[in-house]
Amino acid sequence: MIKIIVNDIVPILVIMALGYICGRVHYFDDDQRQGLNKVVLDIALPAALFVSIVKATREMLASDLVLTILSLVGVTGMFMLSYLLCKKLFHHTTQEAAVCALIAGSPTIGFLGFAVLDPIYGNDVTTNLVIGIVSIVVNAVTIPLGFYLINKGQSEMRAKAAKGTKAVPAASAAVPAAGSAAVDDAKAPSTPATPAGAPVTDQEARAAEKEHGIRKEIDVIRAEERGHAKKHAIKNPNVAAIVNAVKKPVAAAPLIAVLLVLIGVRFPSELDPCFELIAKANSGVAVLAAGLALSTVSLGVNKEVIWNTFYRLILMPAVIVAAGFALGMGSDPSKISMLAMAVALPPAFSGIIISSRYNIYVKEGANSVAVSTVCFAATCILWVWVMPILCSMFH
Q1: How many domains would you assign to the chain?
Q2: pLDDT band, very low/low/confident/very high, at 181 (cuts 50, 70, 90)
Q3: What is the reported pLDDT for 146?
Q4: What is the CATH number of the domain that holds 285?
Q5: Are 356 and 286 in contact (CB under 8 A)?
Q6: Residue 135, CA distances (Å) to 67, 106, 125, 140, 258 in order
Q7: Beta-carbon count within 10 A of 140 CB
Q8: Is 223 exposed, middle or buried (0-12, 13-18, 19+ CB in 10 A)?
Q9: Do residues 291 and 23 make contact, with C-beta atoms less than 8 angstroms apart?
Q10: Could you tell me if residue 106 is inside a domain?
Q11: Between vectors from CA 84 to CA 194 and to CA 305, what angle results, nearest 5°?
Q12: What pTM value is reported for the model?
């Protein structure tokens, strides 16, 4: 157990602290910080997700249907519960609650799964099965679902802001003098500015922070657009949210990988190095970027951070373990113990990267990740100690 803490948890804290220090001394400016987020979110993380999922097989998913169904329903259900509770208890917007769920409702199974479970339970078929199935659910279900909810929330914000803009009487606008019309036309921007209250582009977010010190929420769809010219818009907001979500590499890559697995297409192992080389950059850069995100907000522990930490490390695994016992998994103490540890890991770093990239739920998210990672050193020992006791009671 000490080896796990020293070899796996301490390096995360050290790199996160390094990112925090770099942010506080302004070693990276905001553009460079967002550049790191883009590298992780659009390149390294999609590659890591794709290569990890595509190694699975249909036989693996079918070999233990109880584990597969419990992981799918349990992880997705607790993800959605985290989302709903964040909206109801802490009164956050749809997109903020979605990022909260990506943090509090998603374990970092791809990053710490093997590093934590192998030393405790050994590297065998069952360990690989549990990690593989939970990893597929977290990466191929909750990340696209999170992006769908973010897009849905921002779509609602844009619609509300547009209505507010239309409500302003046309007569209230200043009427230019006749002689200045040509000059004004020449100076007028080719595209309208983002309405007040709507998420903005990268360019507008940089300008707002530089000129006014305001950190504005960035529009996921228009993040890197320099203008706002309308494209072929999808009228149905739910369909538009789904389409815009799967356009993102971090959502599309795991979905494509799962599709290949389900139809039985084996990805050539000779191509693995092409993905693994950039995928290896994911973990370290993601943790460094998390530290940079933490440096942009005030450090603090409030009731929301405590709740997110409790939800991530205690409540979610407890509910899934209870469901496992109800489904008869208590007959295999080793497997249900592995499942408990797999879903009791610290928050997935993809959540805080998305948070930092789009300026959504940054303060609460960054502090929740930091506190949860520190507390995992204790809750890891707790779950290792309590699972044999529970298994003996419900065997």
Answers
A1: 1
A2: very low
A3: 95
A4: 1.20.1530
A5: no
A6: 12, 10, 15, 8, 11
A7: 22
A8: middle
A9: yes
A10: yes
A11: 85
A12: 0.84
